[in-house]
Backbone:
C-alpha cells in the first residue's frame, strides 16, 4: 500500500509536482465511466432537489385568508 505524501499548496509546487497533482483531471469524458446511481445515491439526489418548506409539527396547518380595509378605522359589525 502506498503511503500518501502530504499535499503542499500548488503555489509552492514545481512543474513536475504540479503535473502529477493535476494528472487525474486530464482525462476526457470521465462521466462516461459512471453507471446509473444506486438506491442510496437516488435518495440523496431526491433530498438535495427538495425545496425547503415549513417543518411539519402537530396535526398540520389550516390556511386562512384575511382582508383589511385600507384606511385608519376598521368597521365593526355586531
Residues:
Amino acid at each position: 500500500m502506498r503511503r500518501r505524501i502530504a499535499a503542499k499548496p500548488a503555489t509552492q509546487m514545481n512543474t513536475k509536482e504540479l503535473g502529477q497533482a493535476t494528472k487525474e483531471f486530464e482525462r476526457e469524458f470521465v462521466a462516461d465511466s459512471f453507471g446509473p446511481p444506486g438506491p442510496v445515491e437516488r435518495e440523496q439526489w431526491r433530498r438535495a432537489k427538495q425545496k425547503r418548506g415549513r417543518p411539519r409539527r402537530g396535526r398540520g396547518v389550516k390556511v386562512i385568508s384575511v382582508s383589511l380595509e385600507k384606511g385608519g378605522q376598521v368597521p365593526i359589525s355586531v
